[in-house]
Amino acid sequence: MLELRDVVATYGAVRALDGVSLSVTDGAITAVLGANGAGKTTLLRTVNGLVRPASGSIKYAGRDLVAAPVEQVVTFGLAHVPEGRGVITELTVEENLRLGGLWRGNRKESADSLGTVYEMFPPLADRRTQPADTLSGGERQMLAIGRALMSRPTLLLLDEPSLGLAPRVTAQIMATLRRLSREQGMTVVLVEQNARSALSVADVAVVLNLGRIVAQGNADELAADEKLRHAYLGF
Amino acid sequence: MNFLNDVIYGAANGVIYAAFALALVLIWRSTRIVNFSQGGMLMFTTFIGWELVQRHGVNYWVGLAVAIIAGLLLGAIVERLLVRPVENGPPLNAVIVTLGLLLVLQAVAGMIWGNGLSSYAPRFSLNYYHVGHRVILFSPDYLFIVIAVLVVLVALFVLFQLSPLGLRMRASAFNPEVARLLGVRVGRMLTLGWALAAGVGALAGVLIAGTAPNYMNPNGFDELLILGFTAAVIGGLDSPVGAVVGGVIVGVALQVLDDYVSNDIDPFFIFALLLVILMIRPNGIFARRTVRRV
Amino acid sequence: MSGLAAMGRRWLRLPTLVRHLVVALVGLGVLLAISEALSEYRNTQLAEIAYTVCAVAGLTLLTGLSGQISLGNGAFMFVGAYTVALLLKHHPFGGITGYQSNWWLVPVLILAVLVAAAVGGLVGVAAARLRGPYLAGITLALAIGLPSLPKYQHLQSQLGGHAGIPISAPAPPGSIDYFRWQAWICLIAMVITLFLLANLASSRVGRAFKAVRDDEISASLAGLPVARIQILAFVVSAAAAGLAGGLFGLISLDAGPDSFPLSLSLGLLAAAVFGGLGSLPGAVYGAILITLLPQWATDLSHQVSLSSKIVNNLPLLVYGAALMLAMLAVPFGLQGLLRRGWHQVRDWRRRDGLAPG
Ligand SMILES: Nc1ncnc2c1ncn2[C@@H]1O[C@H](COP(=O)(O)OP(=O)(O)OP(=O)(O)O)[C@@H](O)[C@H]1O
Ligand SMILES: [Mg+2]
After folding, report:
1. Residues A61-84: pLDDT tens digits?
2. Most buried among A132, B179, C72, C169, by the most CB within 10 A?
3. 134-153 in A: which are within 8 Å (CB) of B?
4. What's the CATH number where B63 sits?
């Protein structure tokens, strides 16, 4: 279980997270919603150690994430799909993927995972030797997710995977996430601007505003709450 | 025939510039810093080899090995102590630190070995080959250098393109943050990048020192820094193969200028060459994308 | 106390130009008085410091204010020195031989400045297209490449080849001591340079330099001609270095291709960095430091009998260490340290209620 307690994160004078407490249920998809600048990206970056909280604690499966070096977090079973350009464009598709599995140092497992990812995202298999900067936006997102899966995570953090994608591609990605959660019991934290499609796959949702949690609950309940939708979710 | 000899002689020297350029490229790839102390670093390690071989009668190959090991260590130490603190600052700071290191290395070398000229005997003969009555401006020692540089190039290719370690190093250079998230110890990769570069530089230093009497001196590699930089810039600073091609281009161009204009003012020609190249492509001729500090 | 404070306030209300002028004139008076009290040998040192200040001040303006690094300002000194040497060799100024009148030095030095500025403009055109390590690389090549030009076989008769061109010494007017006269020439030139550069730095141009340094894109969005500003900075910096080179020629009595090694250019950079990039007072400390260092090293060697290998390389060691230390430990240079120290003192005094808020 991922647990955040009173997490405060600041950039100079900006309090991007202002006392966030959150328990993420294992095996479920948790959507994190909110307007631009609400602190969603900061939330994920604090979890994986790229931003160090000014105060508060973050624990995953009993381990203290606040004290852990960023390089180590992947070994706890966390994988991160960063916002925007998460793929390393100078490397080929396959190199990006292999990089995801490198920390295990087990060639056979790596090769297996590679096969699974290519099965899951056939367009990547056709482009394995191409540099990643030749990929389309949707293919890049597939690559970023595929690379995260290469590390065989138990907790997958995604930052706006639908950014700039056509509705059909977004739907495919959401379906993939649902499958990962249902079939493999993976815990997913899904940060999204696109609240409608995120709520369609999520089990639980959290709404952030100005660094604070302003609502949380079952995804269907939040989606049904008209006032909340108008105030924070824009649909 | 004369022109052909110019090309051969120029290309052979170009391989020397390329060896130097390789070290610059490796560091640029790993930390986006041009190591202006490269000439000083390889001067220093070459002097260590020289001390063993010329002063204490140690075997040439042992001297070479010690120089390379010294280079690896020096590179790692320099990265950890001096480069790490300025790595993410403005590029100007890194440039100034490497220049400072250049001066310190030159000063220390001068204090230990003096500022006069010494000579480092080449491993193989510098006598030119003959084909019939014709002299070919190429010698066994140069053949050795060309082979050594090609071997290094192949080894680097295998390391960077085919090994997991190379993949980690490239990822660290291109996108440290993502690499870190994927469990790569980026700091170590950068240290390794510098160590490797300095090791290649140390090899280059010993090879070069044997070819002419004017290298073994604290300032002996100043001109080579510019030549190597020019070669690396032609290759876009990023590509080892580009650096070698760049080195050969510089070598031949310089030889032709020497032969047809004047051989008194090499430094001026190098300046002019670099100027022309940078004006054609401010980021290097073979550079694919614009320079980005990651 | 309050009288002093009032005077201080009135002083600050004066136009910048007037303040700079007063400081320059007072400074020059003090310096000339000091020179009067010093020995021949010390006067030579004073002259060396003075022309080094010119070069360092130009460089600190270029690198500190406009944000362009130059490892090649020694090459502009080369241009200045050779211009002076050539002018005096061909003495196109009628009665210049024997220096019946020292006034001829003025047009000669001005020409040295102009020629160096022109070369600086050419380099600046190239430099304005280059950034970071590329700019550093090309200026490094300039530092090594340009001073080799006199060795070109077809220029040897004009430029004197390896031996260089001798320069005849300016004869002091009246009964002034020869070395003192050299120091005076250099001090006057230095004060004029500092005066001009200080005014430039605090003018619209100086602000444009800083705007370009801080953010080229927003500077160009604000309508500043970025490339032209960068070129201008190179011109100014080269002009100052050209003057320094001309004075260097007059003091050392020749212009030779080996008098402008890479370590000269890097020494200038070390001085500018150590004094604090962009700071004119810092340029003065930096220049004093790099001029006196070799001297101190020699003195030290007499006292502790170090080997000449060590002594000869001591200054280089200090330049290098200064460059690294400045970046790693004192990123704002000496002047920055002083300024911070001063602010600290002022804060203490404020807190203790000693100074008016
Ligand atoms: N590196 C930074 N330096 C300074 N401020 C930052 C930095 N990163 C984020 N912020 C600020 O912190 C706040 C939260 O930013 P964050 O990126 O977490 O928002 P977000 O919810 O992900 O927004 P978006 O939906 O636009 O991605 C914003 O006000 C932002 O300006
Ligand atoms: Mg975001």
Report:
1. 989 999 899 999 999 999 999 987
2. C72
3. 147, 151
4. 1.10.3470
